[in-house]
Design a protein that fits this description.
Layout: H1 14-36, E1 45-49, H2 52-68, E2 73-80, E3 83-84, E4 88-89, E5 94-100, E6 103-108, H3 117-123, E7 128-132, H4 135-145, H5 151-156, E8 158-160, H6 161-165, H7 177-185, H8 193-196, H9 207-247
Helix pairs in contact: 2-3, 7-9
């Protein structure tokens, strides 16, 4: 007979059993949130532009802020493009940029053959960081459709929320924006197929399209700030533990 036997339930300490029950209850609660959690809403202003000149002017404003900031200039970032099961992915059509949680620039670039210089300079600016889910792929997609900027520099400026989340979540997985919003905010983000699969290249965008686009960039920036705070808290906790060990 093996000298090692499995512990019976009565042999497991009560505190350990309670922790196990609590953990299972938490798992069930999280699963229920998929269908019951409230939807995150976009609370800010949307600045929507479609022509080359207005897009360039709005990007120049952001570029001016980047030049003046002493710290990193974090931008919630996302792009949209039309998709067809017959023809596949279309050209990048909309660029969404949230410099803060109160405003989002929705830039419909589908009618242009090139991106404004102010936009490409913004993407590659030393102090700019673009944050989102799979954001590097978005930047590469934008470059494939609109060559003419330093894609390697722009990719270096990207901060992927999935990578950040894996440092604080307590487990690792491949994250979507929906999963991130659910995990960290216990909310859902609308991914209405009718809007998601809509004609992003056709101007003007409907109000539903504009809100959908703005929400992705807004949620990305909000998640960045939340996860960054959790990372900072982890560092503070580790520093406190090290100080206590040094004292002992």
């Amino acid at each position: 007979m093996s000298m090692t036997r499995m512990r019976t339930r009565s042999q497991v300490p009560l505190t350990e059993r309670n922790e196990d029950v609590i953990a299972k209850q938490e798992v069930q609660r999280k699963k229920a949130l998929v269908d019951t959690a409230p939807f995150i809403k976009y609370p800010g202003k949307i600045v929507y532009s479609t022509d080359f000149t207005s897009i360039a002017e709005n990007c120049a404003k952001l570029l001016d802020k980047a030049n003046k900031t002493e710290d990193l200039f974090i931008l919630g970032f996302d792009i949209e493009w039309p998709f067809s099961f017959q023809t596949g992915s279309g050209k990048a059509s909309v660029v969404q940029i949230s410099p803060n949680l109160d405003i989002c620039y929705v830039l419909q670039v589908s009618s242009s053959n090139k991106l404004p210089k102010a936009l490409t300079e913004l993407l590659c600016h030393d102090k700019v960081r673009l944050t989102g889910i799979c954001v590097k792929n978005d930047v590469r997609k934008l470059h494939r459709d609109f060559p003419g900027f330093d894609v390697d520099k722009a990719v270096d400026n990207c901060i992927d929320l999935g990578v950040m989340a894996n440092t604080v979540a307590g487990f690792t997985q491949r994250w979507s924006l929906e999963k991130l919003v659910l995990h960290f905010f216990e909310m859902r983000i609308s991914k209405d197929k009718a809007v998601r699969m809509s004609k992003w290249h056709v101007a003007p965008l409907s109000e539903a399209q504009q809100v959908y686009a703005a929400l992705d960039a807004y949620a990305s920036l909000k998640l960045y700030h939340h996860i960054k705070q959790e990372q900072d808290n982890q560092v503070d906790d580790e520093d406190q533990e090290n100080q206590e060990m040094d004292i002992n």
